[in-house]
Request: fold
Amino acid sequence: MSFPRAAVRHLERHVARQHIQGTLRTAQLGAALCRATASQASWRPSPRAGRSYATVSAIELEFGQPVHETHPHILKAGEITPGITAQEYADRRTKLAHSLANGGIAVLAAADLKYRSGAVFFPFRQESNFLYLTGFLEPGALAVIQKTGPDLGDYEFHLFCRPKDPRAEQWSGPWSGLQAATDVFNADSAHDIAKADTLLPNLLQSATRIYADLPSPNATVAPSLPNTIRHALPKPNVLATLQPLVNSLRAIKSPAEVAAMRHAGRVSGRALTDAMRRPWAYEKDLHSFLTHAFSQDGCGGEAYVPVVAGGPRGTMIHYVHNTAALAPGSTVLVDAGGEYGNYVSDITRTWPVSGRFSAPQRDLYEAVLRVQRRVVTMCRADAALTLDQLHRVADNGLREELTALGFQGLAAGDGGGMDVLFPHHVGHYVGLDVHDVPGYGRGIQLKTGHCVTVEPGIYVPDDERFPKHFRGLAVRIEDSVCVNDDGPIVLTAEAVKEVVDIEALRDY
Ligand code: GLY
Ligand code: MN
Ligand code: MN
Reply:
């Protein structure tokens, strides 16, 4: 069966526009995309034998990432990445294009594949803005979003990527190719990335403003595609930074994004709770248990290098060696989370290795927990607070709690070592990246759809300024939270955190 590509494109844009007007459901777009993708798998009769033979190789029917037709166990019809539909990607491009100046063009480069040595590469991770606007998960690609008029939907989406190449794909595994760029990823035009050097200057020539995020020309490792963009600029003074515009879109999560983050949080939270059920002798064993658990239920594995820090190693904020033995009687601080559909979960829990808190461990833990709970409840749009204001609530609350526990000189405003005891911010935005929307300030009032972490911590070094029985203890409690109109949605609630709940995990 074949379905004319131009007709699909027309339908997709038509559907996208209709959807923006709220009159059509995404299922129709999904169905159109199914037809489009199915058309790639056309079988033609052989003229010589009265039988049918495939005229395309298996590689031609493979894509550089799961699509619904090849991986229905991962993607529902209409989805480009888990939980996010083609319609939602089209809506994102529509909104971005609308925010550009008249005659503006946004140019985004895919991430490069990074090499460890020789031909041995690190796992590929797509550049987050490129991913947010395209859902295309390959290196060697450029996205160009060209505003063509003043109305919502007046834009062209050009995708430069690698054409199908069975010989190269025999080594690398499949990639998607130009046909899929239009039929699956809904580009208005697809081009060979090898021709970007010649085609991009033509595209950019007429732009009144070019939005891109280019690394400094002095960067030690200059990615190849940004150089292509730089060379294509008609005049450097038409260049504007793209990040703030994409940040404004990315910062407020859609219902589908919140659902993806809930899924990541649910699976990751359960993994942490399961880890707390059992005694661990080594940080490494606990780490590998979590790595496996973060790959369950459709999740994509670790969202970041986790901290698995026994005893005083928890006072080192980014301790990631995770190689030491866990001493009975000590606590373990674990900062770990998985991801689902590229959306991450950021969680920290601290618990006693032996399953029971000692008195000082419990006192310090409950002090941090009270503050953490208080700040979580303030993650609501009707409180109209900023992350910086939440930080001050946490800082003041921790000072009061520690003073009640016998710490000296911590009255609000005094130093007293608070810069050592609580050296980091109480939270950050979270989403496609653990530290999401870089450059988006913490002085912005939290609104419905903002997703943030709440992670107060107290790290007591072996220092005579602090009560002896707390020295060497480290407690951080972190949840990922979505701000809702009149209350928080705790995305990571399945990781237990009450003392009674943690201790009850070993009661049977
Ligand atoms: N896991 C990194 C952080 O909590 O910021
Ligand atoms: Mn965090
Ligand atoms: Mn964390």
